[in-house]
């Protein structure tokens, strides 16, 4: 009993912050992407804290150091902006450099797309060019035909340049922000507390059906695309409104077919009328029938 009491007192002494002891279940704010997010402490191990983000599933729980947490002095359940950069292994800091007008640059090669799941929810994307340019986000319409200069001329806040030194990558955005992160031996990287890795090129031919589901303001839409190995596809769509009766009747449905062609990270879909559309396509793992397909920044899951 005496030993247990001593350990508790010692931990309280070590984990004292901003005039208040940090203990399990303490209401805190967690620094992520230059903002403070409400959460709580789940576990304490020395100077590391396992934290949970309020209103997010446990899959986003993570271990952080004391520099990334503070007592929730607001207790309002809201996200608050950070006024200073974090001295951590991965930071998102506001540069003193002012945003500058975009200047077209010489871009070489096809961009390499990285993706990862953010603690906020959703997926983050970075497109890196071998010539030193970077875009935040997943371009639509295919990577091979993406026009970096045209895109950034229309709005350059998500465009910038990057450089590497040893195990460190530094991104300087046109907005004046600077991202500094870690390069990992396996080719992945860590930016803003998010691990991102390169996506995988899809096989040129698919032989599986993939499903996309969306719910917008009570309207549920299910889209199933069956890709055949001979380069043809069949597409079915169904939609219904939620009437709060646990039933989504298929109030409308449609079907179409055509051909597809995959080259690199671009898929061209041509329907029976001859109308063609291009999309960015990739996989999350190797294989002839990937479990998930990335599609213009969304995900299609293989139908069971």
**SSE pattern, N- to C-terminal:** HEEEEEEEEEEEEHEEEEEEEEEEEEE
What is the overall silhouette?
globular
Q: Going across the biggest sheet, name each strand in turn.
A: 10-11-12-13-14-15-16-17
CATH topology of the largest domain: Lipocalin
Structure in words:
There is one protein chain. With 304 residues, this protein is mainly β. The protein has three domains: 2-84, SH3 type barrels (Roll), CATH 2.30.30.140; 92-198, Beta Barrel (Lipocalin); 208-302, Lipocalin. The chain is built from two helices and 25 strands. An eight-stranded antiparallel β-barrel has the order 10-11-12-13-14-15-16-17. It has an eight-stranded antiparallel β-barrel with strand order 18-19-20-21-22-23-24-25. The longest helix has 13 residues, at 2-14. The protein is globular, with a radius of gyration of 24 Å. Residues 1-20 and 83-97 have low confidence and may be disordered.
